[in-house]
């Protein structure tokens, strides 16, 4: 993209941006990705479509960034001084109800992604890659503290383990992920693989 | 279900059954789950619809069992004498091309599952639960050999780790799973968590 997010974003206030993202998430939950239109977002938020396109390029980016914005606390804001503390802080970012809501939202989007490469690209750019990068920093701090060996091959798979747990929870156990499940999975799988 | 699979299945030969399953998988790949009809399966395999319904109850079970049948070697047929050997044998069940084919088939089905609880139930009964049970036996043998502690909490998460790797591979790395990836993930994640 030619313009950076910052220059595009600078035209609206952070409060207005947050308001727009909330409206987009409400629409998503109400009607599903395919039925969300820029017209509906514009109407609900009393914005012009021109503004929406100027700021976000299109629906895929707007949706991906709305979800990104909704994540309560980025991993980067957490630095407990231990790998276990930092990873377990993941579980405190959302209560069980929010985890279930976000999990069904992501499940619904994952069905759209197969026929919509633009949405996949936007989710990868605004959600997956930033999470992978933040996780890399969490693990790098653990390497620097001597908790994790720099050449441990599990370092490349931290997000695979975690995303996998969320997805497999529904498939195998027919239950949404909960704080207790994620916490137990981190202690049973992620930490032993990383400190092995 | 009132009748057992065995009594229902006993009316056709294993060769005929295999032929039917191949036809179902071909149709699935050609037109997708929603467009597969019992009429089309009956026409392609020159069976009567009555036979299909009698043997398989319906489309969801027929599809789930066709996929199950297609899996080249069950885990239970593998007993190498070590946990690593048994788990690594997973990677040898399919070559990279088959792995990619099965992975896109499962991805396509996972999008259907959200709006089709009957298919989810059939996949759980015929694919996920048998795999979980087979994996439990692989791990139990490792516990009996003293390779894995009986109270290791990762035992409950082996299928979460493995299914997660397959799903996350596409999301994070934008690549289908390969033998090399699965093999490396088993050594980096699954084994360290289990023998921790």
TrEMBL record, chains A, B:
SUPFAM superfamilies named in the record: Homeodomain-like (SSF46689), Tetracyclin repressor-like, C-terminal domain (SSF48498)
What positions does the DNA-binding region cover? 37-56
Q: Which domain of life is it from?
A: Bacteria
The record's listing under InterPro entries reads: Homeodomain-like_sf, HTH-type_TetR-like_transc_reg, HTH_TetR, Tet_transcr_reg_TetR-rel_C_sf, TetR_C
Please report the stretch or stretches of sequence annotated as the HTH tetR-type domain.
14-74
The GO molecular function terms of this record are: DNA-binding transcription factor activity; transcription cis-regulatory region binding
Q: Which UniProt keywords apply?
A: DNA-binding, Transcription, Transcription regulation
* Pfam families, sorted: TetR_C_11, TetR_N
Concerning PANTHER family, the annotation shows: HTH-TYPE TRANSCRIPTIONAL REGULATOR RUTR (PTHR30055), TETR-FAMILY TRANSCRIPTIONAL REGULATOR (PTHR30055:SF149)
Q: What is this protein called?
A: TetR family transcriptional regulator
Instruction: Cite the source lineage.
Output: Bacteria, Bacillati, Actinomycetota, Actinomycetes, Kitasatosporales
